[in-house]
Specification:
The protein is mostly helical and 194 residues long. The protein has one domain: Hypothetical Protein Ta1238, Chain: A. The strands form 2 sheets. Strands 1-2 form a two-stranded antiparallel sheet. A two-stranded antiparallel ribbon has the order 3-4. Helix 2 packs antiparallel against helix 5. The longest helix has 26 residues. 30% of the residues are buried.
Length: 194
């Protein structure tokens, strides 16, 4: 368990930060970019959860909030996975595992089964929570780009990349679920403003 007694350390004042085992790297290192972008996505998921809490107490909203609570915890796991290159001797590093990816897939299938079929691309919008999930989705895609750029140069857990790829799909279908199963989706009209 993490115990934080001091928030600032001055250790980063010269543009360096510590990874999971204490290795010092530049704050703009690809690994730091990757887990920083995951953290950004997590913060937006938190905003979506506050919008859901304001929207009411329906079963759909409760289920969505429970899914997002699990996702937020997973995103901290993902950040820990990305910032720890190798485990300390005698300890296992926290890694994203296949069961976390599979849970996302099962939830995607269940939510998508309730939705109206798509006949157009969707513009981010509809309700507040749905719009925030679209924002989290786009940041998740950026995190995925950062992670695959990192993986091209350094080791990255393959399950972590699968997880972030599924996450953006999950956030997409959940945004539609919160938009009255797609009825409140804002559809793209190609050339509609010409």
């Amino acid at each position: 368990m993490v115990k934080l007694t001091r928030i600032y350390t001055r250790g980063g004042d010269k543009g360096k930060t510590s990874l999971g085992r204490g290795e010092r790297v530049a704050k703009h290192d690809l690994r730091v970019e990757a887990y920083g972008t995951v953290d950004e996505a997590n913060a937006i998921v938190g905003l979506a959860r506050t919008a859901i809490a304001r929207a009411g107490k329906s079963d759909v909203l409760k289920q969505a909030d429970a899914m997002l609570a699990r996702i937020q915890n997973d995103l901290f796991d993902l950040g820990a996975d990305l910032c720890t290159i190798k485990a300390k001797r005698g300890q296992a590093a926290l890694r994203i595992v296949a069961s976390q990816v599979e849970r996302l897939e099962h939830e995607i299938d269940a939510v998508n089964g309730e939705l109206r079929p798509l006949n157009s691309f969707i513009l981010p919008g509809g309700g507040e929570a749905a719009a925030l999930l679209h924002l989290a989705r786009t940041v998740s895609r950026r995190a995925e780009r950062r992670m695959t750029a990192l993986a091209a140069k350094r080791p990255v857990n393959a399950e972590a990349i699968k997880y972030i790829n599924r996450l953006s799909d999950h956030l997409f279908v959940l945004s539609r679920r919160l938009n009255d199963n797609g009825a409140a989706d804002v559809l793209w009209v190609p050339g509609g403003t010409r």
